[in-house]
Design brief:
The chain has about 550 residues and is an all-alpha fold. It has a single domain, classed as Cytochrome C Oxidase, Chain A, CATH 1.20.210.10. Helices cover about 75% and strands about 0% of the residues. It has 16 helices and two strands. It has a two-stranded parallel sheet with strand order 1-2. α2 runs parallel beside α4, α6 packs parallel to α9 and α13 packs parallel to α15. The longest helix is centred in the last third of the chain and has 37 residues. It is globular and about 65 Å long. The structure holds protoporphyrin IX containing FE. Protoporphyrin IX containing FE binds next to α1, α2, α13 and α15.
Length: about 550
Protein backbone atom coordinates (compact mmCIF):
# COMPACT_ATOMS: atom_id res chain seq x y z
CA UNK A 1 0.00 0.00 0.00
CA UNK A 2 1.64 3.27 -1.13
CA UNK A 3 0.26 5.18 1.85
CA UNK A 4 1.73 2.66 4.30
CA UNK A 5 5.00 2.84 2.39
CA UNK A 6 5.06 6.64 2.67
CA UNK A 7 4.57 6.36 6.43
CA UNK A 8 7.47 3.93 6.90
CA UNK A 9 9.66 5.91 4.52
CA UNK A 10 9.15 9.09 6.56
CA UNK A 11 10.05 7.26 9.77
CA UNK A 12 13.20 5.83 8.17
CA UNK A 13 14.18 9.23 6.79
CA UNK A 14 14.10 10.80 10.27
CA UNK A 15 16.03 7.84 11.70
CA UNK A 16 18.93 8.25 9.27
CA UNK A 17 18.91 12.06 9.58
CA UNK A 18 19.37 11.48 13.34
CA UNK A 19 22.28 9.13 12.57
CA UNK A 20 23.97 11.83 10.51
CA UNK A 21 23.69 14.62 13.09
CA UNK A 22 24.27 12.31 16.08
CA UNK A 23 27.32 10.80 14.35
CA UNK A 24 28.89 14.22 13.75
CA UNK A 25 28.38 15.08 17.42
CA UNK A 26 29.94 11.71 18.35
CA UNK A 27 33.03 12.59 16.35
CA UNK A 28 33.32 15.94 18.15
CA UNK A 29 33.24 14.07 21.47
CA UNK A 30 35.75 11.48 20.31
CA UNK A 31 38.22 14.13 19.12
CA UNK A 32 37.69 16.18 22.27
CA UNK A 33 38.26 13.20 24.56
CA UNK A 34 41.54 12.47 22.82
CA UNK A 35 42.67 16.06 23.42
CA UNK A 36 42.69 16.74 19.66
CA UNK A 37 39.85 19.25 19.56
CA UNK A 38 38.78 22.01 21.85
CA UNK A 39 35.09 22.81 21.64
CA UNK A 40 34.18 26.48 21.03
CA UNK A 41 33.19 28.41 24.13
CA UNK A 42 29.50 28.51 23.09
CA UNK A 43 29.28 24.72 22.98
CA UNK A 44 30.11 22.61 26.00
CA UNK A 45 30.87 18.88 26.13
CA UNK A 46 27.64 18.08 27.97
CA UNK A 47 25.45 19.82 25.43
CA UNK A 48 27.05 17.70 22.73
CA UNK A 49 26.82 14.51 24.81
CA UNK A 50 23.15 15.14 25.68
CA UNK A 51 22.25 15.69 22.03
CA UNK A 52 24.34 12.68 20.87
CA UNK A 53 22.59 10.39 23.37
CA UNK A 54 19.11 11.72 22.64
CA UNK A 55 19.49 11.60 18.86
CA UNK A 56 20.99 8.14 18.71
CA UNK A 57 19.35 6.18 21.48
CA UNK A 58 15.95 7.78 21.34
CA UNK A 59 15.27 9.33 17.94
CA UNK A 60 17.21 7.01 15.62
CA UNK A 61 16.16 3.79 17.30
CA UNK A 62 12.51 4.69 17.93
CA UNK A 63 11.95 5.99 14.41
CA UNK A 64 13.70 3.03 12.79
CA UNK A 65 11.86 0.46 14.92
CA UNK A 66 8.45 1.98 14.25
CA UNK A 67 9.12 2.46 10.52
CA UNK A 68 10.33 -1.14 10.16
CA UNK A 69 7.56 -2.78 12.17
CA UNK A 70 4.80 -0.70 10.61
CA UNK A 71 6.06 -1.84 7.21
CA UNK A 72 6.07 -5.42 8.58
CA UNK A 73 2.53 -5.09 9.96
CA UNK A 74 1.29 -3.64 6.68
CA UNK A 75 2.97 -6.41 4.68
CA UNK A 76 1.97 -9.38 6.82
CA UNK A 77 -1.51 -8.31 7.99
CA UNK A 78 -2.79 -7.14 4.61
CA UNK A 79 -2.30 -3.39 5.10
CA UNK A 80 -2.77 -0.90 7.91
CA UNK A 81 -6.28 0.17 8.90
CA UNK A 82 -6.87 3.81 7.87
CA UNK A 83 -7.32 4.87 11.51
CA UNK A 84 -4.10 3.11 12.48
CA UNK A 85 -2.19 4.89 9.74
CA UNK A 86 -3.63 8.15 11.02
CA UNK A 87 -2.54 7.31 14.57
CA UNK A 88 0.98 6.57 13.35
CA UNK A 89 1.12 9.96 11.60
CA UNK A 90 -0.14 11.72 14.72
CA UNK A 91 2.51 9.80 16.68
CA UNK A 92 5.12 10.90 14.12
CA UNK A 93 4.19 14.58 14.55
CA UNK A 94 4.07 14.32 18.35
CA UNK A 95 7.53 12.77 18.46
CA UNK A 96 8.92 15.47 16.18
CA UNK A 97 7.32 18.26 18.23
CA UNK A 98 8.66 16.62 21.39
CA UNK A 99 12.11 16.35 19.88
CA UNK A 100 12.16 20.02 18.87
CA UNK A 101 11.00 21.02 22.37
CA UNK A 102 13.79 18.93 23.92
CA UNK A 103 16.44 20.27 21.56
CA UNK A 104 15.73 23.97 22.14
CA UNK A 105 16.95 23.98 25.78
CA UNK A 106 19.88 21.73 24.80
CA UNK A 107 20.98 24.37 22.28
CA UNK A 108 20.57 27.16 24.83
CA UNK A 109 22.53 25.06 27.35
CA UNK A 110 19.57 24.77 29.71
CA UNK A 111 19.34 20.99 29.45
CA UNK A 112 22.85 19.57 29.67
CA UNK A 113 21.52 16.71 31.78
CA UNK A 114 22.35 13.89 29.36
CA UNK A 115 19.81 11.46 28.03
CA UNK A 116 19.47 9.90 31.50
CA UNK A 117 18.47 13.28 33.12
CA UNK A 118 19.09 11.98 36.67
CA UNK A 119 17.74 14.30 39.39
CA UNK A 120 18.99 16.28 41.22
CA UNK A 121 20.44 17.61 37.94
CA UNK A 122 17.63 19.71 36.54
CA UNK A 123 16.95 21.01 33.06
CA UNK A 124 14.55 23.62 31.81
CA UNK A 125 11.00 22.21 32.18
CA UNK A 126 10.62 22.49 28.39
CA UNK A 127 13.08 19.60 27.99
CA UNK A 128 10.82 17.32 30.02
CA UNK A 129 7.68 18.53 28.25
CA UNK A 130 9.42 17.51 25.02
CA UNK A 131 10.03 14.04 26.47
CA UNK A 132 6.33 13.76 27.40
CA UNK A 133 5.41 14.45 23.76
CA UNK A 134 7.89 11.81 22.59
CA UNK A 135 6.39 9.21 24.95
CA UNK A 136 2.83 10.09 23.90
CA UNK A 137 3.85 9.78 20.25
CA UNK A 138 5.29 6.32 20.93
CA UNK A 139 2.07 5.28 22.71
CA UNK A 140 0.03 6.38 19.68
CA UNK A 141 2.06 4.01 17.52
CA UNK A 142 1.89 1.19 20.07
CA UNK A 143 -1.90 1.42 20.31
CA UNK A 144 -2.16 1.69 16.53
CA UNK A 145 -0.24 -1.59 16.25
CA UNK A 146 -2.45 -3.24 18.90
CA UNK A 147 -5.60 -2.19 17.02
CA UNK A 148 -4.28 -3.56 13.73
CA UNK A 149 -3.24 -6.84 15.33
CA UNK A 150 -6.55 -7.22 17.22
CA UNK A 151 -8.46 -6.60 14.00
CA UNK A 152 -6.46 -9.28 12.17
CA UNK A 153 -7.01 -11.76 14.99
CA UNK A 154 -10.76 -11.11 14.95
CA UNK A 155 -10.83 -11.97 11.25
CA UNK A 156 -8.48 -14.96 11.54
CA UNK A 157 -9.72 -16.79 14.62
CA UNK A 158 -7.59 -19.73 15.70
CA UNK A 159 -4.67 -18.75 13.46
CA UNK A 160 -1.19 -17.80 14.57
CA UNK A 161 -0.20 -14.19 14.11
CA UNK A 162 2.32 -13.99 11.23
CA UNK A 163 5.75 -14.18 12.79
CA UNK A 164 6.93 -10.62 12.04
CA UNK A 165 3.66 -9.22 13.42
CA UNK A 166 4.25 -11.42 16.49
CA UNK A 167 7.65 -9.76 17.03
CA UNK A 168 6.05 -6.35 16.44
CA UNK A 169 3.41 -7.07 19.09
CA UNK A 170 6.13 -8.02 21.60
CA UNK A 171 8.08 -4.86 20.83
CA UNK A 172 5.06 -2.57 21.11
CA UNK A 173 3.98 -4.24 24.38
CA UNK A 174 7.45 -3.48 25.73
CA UNK A 175 7.43 0.04 24.29
CA UNK A 176 4.15 0.81 26.02
CA UNK A 177 4.75 -0.84 29.39
CA UNK A 178 8.42 0.16 29.46
CA UNK A 179 7.64 3.82 28.89
CA UNK A 180 4.98 4.03 31.62
CA UNK A 181 7.68 4.37 34.36
CA UNK A 182 9.54 7.14 32.51
CA UNK A 183 6.23 8.95 31.92
CA UNK A 184 5.58 8.85 35.68
CA UNK A 185 9.14 10.03 36.34
CA UNK A 186 8.88 12.96 33.95
CA UNK A 187 5.50 13.97 35.34
CA UNK A 188 7.03 14.14 38.84
CA UNK A 189 10.08 16.02 37.56
CA UNK A 190 8.14 18.78 35.76
CA UNK A 191 6.63 20.37 38.92
CA UNK A 192 10.00 20.05 40.67
CA UNK A 193 12.02 21.55 37.81
CA UNK A 194 9.40 24.32 37.53
CA UNK A 195 9.83 25.19 41.20
CA UNK A 196 6.26 24.23 42.22
CA UNK A 197 7.48 21.52 44.59
CA UNK A 198 10.74 21.78 46.47
CA UNK A 199 12.27 18.33 46.45
CA UNK A 200 12.29 15.04 44.59
CA UNK A 201 13.01 11.45 45.61
CA UNK A 202 16.19 10.73 43.69
CA UNK A 203 16.13 6.94 44.12
CA UNK A 204 12.57 6.65 42.86
CA UNK A 205 13.41 8.81 39.84
CA UNK A 206 16.51 6.78 38.92
CA UNK A 207 14.63 3.51 39.31
CA UNK A 208 11.76 4.68 37.12
CA UNK A 209 14.28 5.83 34.50
CA UNK A 210 16.06 2.50 34.32
CA UNK A 211 12.85 0.48 34.25
CA UNK A 212 12.40 2.32 30.94
CA UNK A 213 16.07 2.64 29.91
CA UNK A 214 16.93 -1.01 29.97
CA UNK A 215 13.62 -2.02 28.43
CA UNK A 216 14.51 0.28 25.57
CA UNK A 217 17.79 -1.60 25.14
CA UNK A 218 15.89 -4.84 24.79
CA UNK A 219 13.38 -3.28 22.41
CA UNK A 220 16.26 -2.53 20.01
CA UNK A 221 17.61 -5.99 20.59
CA UNK A 222 14.26 -7.68 19.95
CA UNK A 223 13.86 -5.61 16.78
CA UNK A 224 17.28 -6.80 15.56
CA UNK A 225 16.48 -10.38 16.61
CA UNK A 226 13.27 -10.29 14.54
CA UNK A 227 15.37 -9.70 11.44
CA UNK A 228 17.80 -12.47 12.43
CA UNK A 229 15.01 -15.05 12.81
CA UNK A 230 12.67 -13.97 10.04
CA UNK A 231 14.55 -12.05 7.32
CA UNK A 232 18.14 -13.29 7.25
CA UNK A 233 17.23 -16.98 6.61
CA UNK A 234 15.30 -15.90 3.51
CA UNK A 235 18.17 -13.76 2.25
CA UNK A 236 20.59 -16.69 2.43
CA UNK A 237 18.08 -18.96 0.69
CA UNK A 238 17.16 -20.97 3.80
CA UNK A 239 14.18 -21.44 6.06
CA UNK A 240 13.26 -20.13 9.48
CA UNK A 241 14.19 -21.97 12.64
CA UNK A 242 11.53 -23.70 14.77
CA UNK A 243 8.47 -21.45 15.05
CA UNK A 244 7.65 -22.44 18.65
CA UNK A 245 11.17 -21.63 19.82
CA UNK A 246 11.05 -18.29 18.01
CA UNK A 247 7.77 -17.30 19.66
CA UNK A 248 9.01 -18.58 23.01
CA UNK A 249 12.07 -16.30 22.73
CA UNK A 250 9.81 -13.28 22.09
CA UNK A 251 7.55 -14.20 25.03
CA UNK A 252 10.52 -14.78 27.38
CA UNK A 253 12.08 -11.44 26.42
CA UNK A 254 8.78 -9.65 26.99
CA UNK A 255 8.20 -11.27 30.39
CA UNK A 256 11.70 -10.88 31.81
CA UNK A 257 12.73 -7.54 30.49
CA UNK A 258 11.62 -4.63 32.60
CA UNK A 259 13.32 -5.51 35.95
CA UNK A 260 16.59 -5.88 34.00
CA UNK A 261 16.92 -2.12 34.46
CA UNK A 262 18.01 -2.55 38.06
CA UNK A 263 21.47 -3.75 37.08
CA UNK A 264 22.20 -0.17 36.00
CA UNK A 265 21.82 0.74 39.68
CA UNK A 266 23.84 -2.09 41.08
CA UNK A 267 26.31 0.31 42.68
CA UNK A 268 23.62 2.72 43.89
CA UNK A 269 23.46 3.20 47.64
CA UNK A 270 20.11 2.70 49.34
CA UNK A 271 19.34 -0.68 47.78
CA UNK A 272 19.69 -3.69 50.06
CA UNK A 273 22.08 -6.51 49.23
CA UNK A 274 19.30 -9.08 48.98
CA UNK A 275 17.40 -6.96 46.45
CA UNK A 276 20.59 -6.56 44.43
CA UNK A 277 21.11 -10.31 44.52
CA UNK A 278 17.59 -10.93 43.16
CA UNK A 279 18.25 -8.41 40.43
CA UNK A 280 21.53 -9.95 39.36
CA UNK A 281 19.60 -13.18 38.83
CA UNK A 282 16.74 -11.41 37.03
CA UNK A 283 19.17 -9.63 34.70
CA UNK A 284 21.19 -12.71 33.92
CA UNK A 285 17.98 -14.63 33.14
CA UNK A 286 17.60 -12.44 30.04
CA UNK A 287 20.74 -14.15 28.72
CA UNK A 288 18.90 -17.46 28.19
CA UNK A 289 16.71 -16.42 25.25
CA UNK A 290 19.83 -14.83 23.74
CA UNK A 291 21.71 -18.12 24.01
CA UNK A 292 18.78 -19.89 22.32
CA UNK A 293 18.92 -17.31 19.56
CA UNK A 294 22.66 -17.75 19.04
CA UNK A 295 22.19 -21.49 18.74
CA UNK A 296 19.19 -21.23 16.40
CA UNK A 297 20.85 -18.72 14.09
CA UNK A 298 24.07 -20.62 13.59
CA UNK A 299 22.07 -23.82 13.09
CA UNK A 300 20.12 -22.09 10.27
CA UNK A 301 23.39 -20.97 8.69
CA UNK A 302 24.88 -24.44 8.87
CA UNK A 303 21.78 -26.14 7.47
CA UNK A 304 21.50 -23.68 4.60
CA UNK A 305 25.21 -23.86 3.81
CA UNK A 306 25.11 -27.65 3.75
CA UNK A 307 22.00 -27.67 1.54
CA UNK A 308 23.96 -25.54 -0.90
CA UNK A 309 26.69 -28.16 -1.03
CA UNK A 310 29.01 -27.11 1.81
CA UNK A 311 31.07 -30.15 2.84
CA UNK A 312 33.11 -31.08 5.91
CA UNK A 313 33.16 -29.44 9.31
CA UNK A 314 33.27 -25.83 8.13
CA UNK A 315 32.73 -26.02 4.33
CA UNK A 316 29.17 -24.66 4.72
CA UNK A 317 30.56 -21.29 5.83
CA UNK A 318 31.93 -20.68 2.32
CA UNK A 319 28.45 -21.22 0.84
CA UNK A 320 26.93 -18.27 2.69
CA UNK A 321 26.43 -15.07 0.61
CA UNK A 322 29.21 -12.99 2.15
CA UNK A 323 29.09 -10.46 -0.69
CA UNK A 324 25.44 -9.59 0.02
CA UNK A 325 25.23 -6.67 2.45
CA UNK A 326 21.73 -7.75 3.52
CA UNK A 327 23.40 -10.83 5.02
CA UNK A 328 26.88 -9.55 5.82
CA UNK A 329 25.82 -6.64 8.04
CA UNK A 330 23.46 -8.63 10.32
CA UNK A 331 25.94 -11.52 10.39
CA UNK A 332 28.71 -9.25 11.71
CA UNK A 333 26.12 -7.87 14.13
CA UNK A 334 25.46 -11.37 15.50
CA UNK A 335 29.16 -12.09 15.89
CA UNK A 336 29.66 -8.76 17.70
CA UNK A 337 26.89 -9.74 20.07
CA UNK A 338 29.04 -12.53 21.50
CA UNK A 339 31.60 -10.21 23.22
CA UNK A 340 28.86 -7.62 23.74
CA UNK A 341 26.72 -10.11 25.67
CA UNK A 342 29.75 -11.25 27.67
CA UNK A 343 30.41 -7.61 28.63
CA UNK A 344 26.79 -7.33 29.72
CA UNK A 345 27.23 -10.31 32.03
CA UNK A 346 30.30 -8.61 33.53
CA UNK A 347 28.31 -5.47 34.21
CA UNK A 348 25.34 -7.31 35.71
CA UNK A 349 27.62 -9.06 38.19
CA UNK A 350 27.88 -7.01 41.33
CA UNK A 351 31.57 -7.52 42.08
CA UNK A 352 32.76 -7.09 38.48
CA UNK A 353 30.61 -4.02 38.04
CA UNK A 354 32.60 -2.32 40.80
CA UNK A 355 35.66 -2.41 38.53
CA UNK A 356 34.03 -0.94 35.45
CA UNK A 357 31.25 1.22 36.85
CA UNK A 358 31.06 4.70 35.30
CA UNK A 359 34.25 4.15 33.35
CA UNK A 360 34.65 4.30 29.57
CA UNK A 361 34.26 0.49 29.61
CA UNK A 362 30.49 1.04 29.89
CA UNK A 363 30.51 3.39 26.90
CA UNK A 364 32.48 0.74 24.98
CA UNK A 365 29.84 -1.82 25.97
CA UNK A 366 26.90 0.07 24.54
CA UNK A 367 28.75 1.04 21.39
CA UNK A 368 29.30 -2.70 20.91
CA UNK A 369 25.68 -3.68 21.69
CA UNK A 370 23.56 -0.90 20.25
CA UNK A 371 26.28 0.84 18.20
CA UNK A 372 27.41 -2.38 16.50
CA UNK A 373 24.97 -5.31 16.90
CA UNK A 374 21.77 -3.31 16.63
CA UNK A 375 23.05 -0.69 14.20
CA UNK A 376 24.60 -3.14 11.74
CA UNK A 377 21.33 -5.10 11.74
CA UNK A 378 19.38 -1.90 11.07
CA UNK A 379 21.83 -1.00 8.30
CA UNK A 380 21.43 -4.51 6.79
CA UNK A 381 17.63 -4.10 6.89
CA UNK A 382 17.86 -0.69 5.21
CA UNK A 383 19.31 -2.23 2.01
CA UNK A 384 16.02 -4.02 1.28
CA UNK A 385 13.47 -2.07 3.34
CA UNK A 386 14.30 1.39 1.95
CA UNK A 387 14.01 0.25 -1.70
CA UNK A 388 10.89 -1.76 -0.79
CA UNK A 389 9.06 1.29 0.59
CA UNK A 390 10.45 3.53 -2.18
CA UNK A 391 9.53 1.14 -5.03
CA UNK A 392 13.16 1.00 -6.10
CA UNK A 393 15.84 -1.68 -6.28
CA UNK A 394 19.21 -2.30 -4.68
CA UNK A 395 21.88 -2.04 -7.39
CA UNK A 396 25.16 -4.03 -7.27
CA UNK A 397 27.01 -0.72 -6.84
CA UNK A 398 25.10 0.22 -3.69
CA UNK A 399 25.40 -3.36 -2.44
CA UNK A 400 29.20 -3.06 -2.82
CA UNK A 401 29.13 0.28 -1.04
CA UNK A 402 27.15 -1.43 1.75
CA UNK A 403 29.79 -4.16 2.04
CA UNK A 404 32.53 -1.50 2.31
CA UNK A 405 30.39 0.41 4.85
CA UNK A 406 30.04 -2.75 6.94
CA UNK A 407 33.84 -3.17 7.03
CA UNK A 408 34.44 0.50 7.84
CA UNK A 409 31.82 0.48 10.62
CA UNK A 410 33.15 -2.78 12.07
CA UNK A 411 36.74 -1.53 12.05
CA UNK A 412 35.69 1.84 13.53
CA UNK A 413 33.66 0.30 16.32
CA UNK A 414 36.33 -2.33 16.97
CA UNK A 415 38.92 0.41 17.52
CA UNK A 416 36.66 2.85 19.35
CA UNK A 417 34.71 0.42 21.54
CA UNK A 418 37.84 -1.71 22.06
CA UNK A 419 39.84 1.30 23.26
CA UNK A 420 36.95 2.37 25.50
CA UNK A 421 36.72 -1.08 27.11
CA UNK A 422 40.46 -1.25 27.67
CA UNK A 423 41.05 2.25 29.01
CA UNK A 424 37.96 1.84 31.20
CA UNK A 425 39.80 -0.95 33.01
CA UNK A 426 42.50 1.63 33.85
CA UNK A 427 39.87 3.86 35.40
CA UNK A 428 39.24 6.43 32.63
CA UNK A 429 35.84 7.89 33.53
CA UNK A 430 32.90 8.17 31.19
CA UNK A 431 31.08 11.47 30.60
CA UNK A 432 34.18 13.62 31.06
CA UNK A 433 35.79 15.90 28.49
CA UNK A 434 39.54 15.72 27.97
CA UNK A 435 41.54 16.30 31.13
CA UNK A 436 44.88 15.12 32.45
CA UNK A 437 43.87 15.84 36.05
CA UNK A 438 46.85 18.22 36.41
CA UNK A 439 49.18 15.90 34.45
CA UNK A 440 48.58 13.00 36.80
CA UNK A 441 50.55 9.95 35.66
CA UNK A 442 47.49 7.66 35.61
CA UNK A 443 45.50 10.05 33.44
CA UNK A 444 48.47 10.56 31.09
CA UNK A 445 48.59 6.77 30.68
CA UNK A 446 45.10 6.87 29.10
CA UNK A 447 46.21 9.09 26.23
CA UNK A 448 47.30 6.42 23.69
CA UNK A 449 43.96 4.61 24.08
CA UNK A 450 42.00 7.83 23.77
CA UNK A 451 43.89 8.49 20.53
CA UNK A 452 42.78 5.07 19.29
CA UNK A 453 39.25 5.99 20.31
CA UNK A 454 39.48 9.09 18.10
CA UNK A 455 40.83 7.06 15.16
CA UNK A 456 37.87 4.68 15.53
CA UNK A 457 35.48 7.64 15.75
CA UNK A 458 36.92 9.09 12.54
CA UNK A 459 36.39 5.80 10.71
CA UNK A 460 32.85 5.73 12.09
CA UNK A 461 31.97 9.11 10.67
CA UNK A 462 33.06 7.79 7.26
CA UNK A 463 30.73 4.85 7.96
CA UNK A 464 27.90 7.26 8.83
CA UNK A 465 28.39 9.21 5.59
CA UNK A 466 28.46 6.04 3.46
CA UNK A 467 25.34 4.69 5.14
CA UNK A 468 23.38 7.93 4.85
CA UNK A 469 24.44 8.24 1.20
CA UNK A 470 23.23 4.67 0.53
CA UNK A 471 19.86 5.34 2.22
CA UNK A 472 19.28 8.63 0.39
CA UNK A 473 20.23 6.98 -2.91
CA UNK A 474 17.91 4.02 -2.31
CA UNK A 475 15.10 6.35 -1.23
CA UNK A 476 15.21 8.86 -4.07
CA UNK A 477 17.63 7.97 -6.87
CA UNK A 478 18.02 4.18 -7.33
CA UNK A 479 16.34 2.60 -10.40
CA UNK A 480 12.59 2.09 -10.06
CA UNK A 481 11.41 -1.48 -9.54
CA UNK A 482 9.91 -4.01 -7.16
CA UNK A 483 11.87 -5.17 -4.11
CA UNK A 484 10.77 -8.19 -2.14
CA UNK A 485 9.93 -8.00 1.58
CA UNK A 486 11.96 -11.08 2.51
CA UNK A 487 10.16 -13.32 4.99
CA UNK A 488 11.48 -16.85 5.36
CA UNK A 489 9.15 -19.87 5.22
CA UNK A 490 8.96 -22.34 8.08
CA UNK A 491 11.02 -25.52 7.79
CA UNK A 492 9.56 -28.42 5.82
CA UNK A 493 7.58 -30.79 8.08
CA UNK A 494 7.76 -28.20 10.88
CA UNK A 495 5.92 -29.31 14.03
CA UNK A 496 2.69 -27.45 14.72
CA UNK A 497 3.13 -24.47 17.02
CA UNK A 498 0.94 -24.75 20.14
CA UNK A 499 -1.73 -22.08 20.49
CA UNK A 500 -0.71 -20.93 23.98
CA UNK A 501 1.89 -18.74 22.31
CA UNK A 502 -0.96 -16.49 21.14
CA UNK A 503 -2.26 -15.79 24.65
CA UNK A 504 -0.96 -12.24 24.95
CA UNK A 505 -3.06 -11.45 28.02
CA UNK A 506 -1.31 -14.30 29.85
CA UNK A 507 2.11 -13.10 28.67
CA UNK A 508 1.36 -9.55 29.83
CA UNK A 509 0.05 -10.79 33.18
CA UNK A 510 3.25 -12.79 33.74
CA UNK A 511 5.28 -9.75 32.73
CA UNK A 512 3.46 -7.60 35.29
CA UNK A 513 4.00 -10.26 37.96
CA UNK A 514 7.73 -10.28 37.26
CA UNK A 515 7.76 -6.47 37.33
CA UNK A 516 6.01 -6.61 40.73
CA UNK A 517 8.54 -9.18 41.99
CA UNK A 518 11.36 -6.88 40.97
CA UNK A 519 10.03 -3.50 41.98
CA UNK A 520 7.46 -3.57 44.80
CA UNK A 521 9.89 -4.18 47.69
CA UNK A 522 12.60 -1.70 46.65
CA UNK A 523 10.11 0.99 45.62
CA UNK A 524 8.24 0.77 48.94
CA UNK A 525 11.61 0.92 50.69
CA UNK A 526 12.71 4.03 48.71
CA UNK A 527 9.48 5.79 49.56
CA UNK A 528 9.05 4.73 53.21
CA UNK A 529 12.70 5.14 54.20
CA UNK A 530 13.42 8.10 51.93
CA UNK A 531 16.18 10.48 53.03
CA UNK A 532 15.35 14.19 52.67
CA UNK A 533 14.51 14.90 49.01
CA UNK A 534 16.72 16.94 46.71
CA UNK A 535 16.09 20.46 45.47
CA UNK A 536 16.88 20.98 41.76
CA UNK A 537 20.51 21.52 40.79
CA UNK A 538 20.33 23.65 37.69
CA UNK A 539 23.09 22.85 35.21
CA UNK A 540 23.18 26.32 33.71
C1 LIG B 1 28.63 8.45 24.04
C2 LIG B 1 31.39 8.51 20.09
C3 LIG B 1 27.86 6.42 17.54
C4 LIG B 1 25.27 6.00 21.57
C5 LIG B 1 29.70 8.63 23.20
C6 LIG B 1 30.96 9.18 23.56
C7 LIG B 1 31.74 9.18 22.46
C8 LIG B 1 30.98 8.63 21.38
C9 LIG B 1 33.18 9.67 22.34
C10 LIG B 1 31.27 9.86 24.88
C11 LIG B 1 31.92 9.13 25.95
C12 LIG B 1 31.85 9.85 27.26
O1 LIG B 1 32.41 10.95 27.44
O2 LIG B 1 31.26 9.27 28.17
C13 LIG B 1 30.63 8.05 19.03
C14 LIG B 1 31.00 8.10 17.64
C15 LIG B 1 29.99 7.52 16.93
C16 LIG B 1 29.01 7.10 17.87
C17 LIG B 1 32.28 8.70 17.11
C18 LIG B 1 29.86 7.33 15.45
C19 LIG B 1 30.16 8.23 14.57
C20 LIG B 1 26.90 6.04 18.42
C21 LIG B 1 25.74 5.25 18.10
C22 LIG B 1 25.02 5.13 19.24
C23 LIG B 1 25.71 5.86 20.28
C24 LIG B 1 25.44 4.70 16.71
C25 LIG B 1 23.72 4.43 19.47
C26 LIG B 1 22.88 4.10 18.58
C27 LIG B 1 25.93 6.70 22.55
C28 LIG B 1 25.40 6.91 23.88
C29 LIG B 1 26.37 7.62 24.58
C30 LIG B 1 27.48 7.81 23.70
C31 LIG B 1 24.06 6.42 24.42
C32 LIG B 1 26.32 8.04 26.04
C33 LIG B 1 25.79 9.38 26.25
C34 LIG B 1 25.84 9.70 27.72
O3 LIG B 1 26.74 9.25 28.43
O4 LIG B 1 24.92 10.41 28.16
N1 LIG B 1 29.73 8.28 21.87
N2 LIG B 1 29.43 7.43 19.14
N3 LIG B 1 26.85 6.39 19.75
N4 LIG B 1 27.17 7.26 22.47
FE1 LIG B 1 28.27 7.36 20.81
Amino acid sequence: NPEDARLSKSYLFVAFAALLVGGILGLLQGLNRAGLLELPTWLNYYQVLTAHGLLLVLVLTAFFTIGYFYAGLSHTLGGLLPKVRKMAWIGFSMKLVGFVLAVIPIITNEASVLYTFYPPMAASPIYYVGLVFIVLGVWMCAFGAFINVANWRKNHRGQHLPILAFFATGVFVLLFFGSVPVAIEVLTIIPWASGWVETINVMVARTLFWAFGHTLVNIWYLTAVSAWYVIVPKIIGGRRWNDTLTRFVVIALVIMNIPGGFHHQIIDPGISESVKFVHVFMSLAIGFPSLMTAWAMFAVFERTGRKKGGKGLLGWIKKLPWGDVRFLAPMVAMIAFIPAGAGGIVQSTNQLNQVVHNTLWVVGHFHLTVGTSVMLTFFGISYWLVPYVSKRVLTPKINKLGVIQTFVWTAGMFLMAGAMHYVGLFGAPRRTSYTTYGDHATALGWDPYLLLLAVGGTLLIIGVLLQVYAVVHLMFFAPKGETEFPIAEEEENAPKTPYWTERWSRTILLMLLVVAMGYVIPMVDFIVNAPPGSPPFKTW
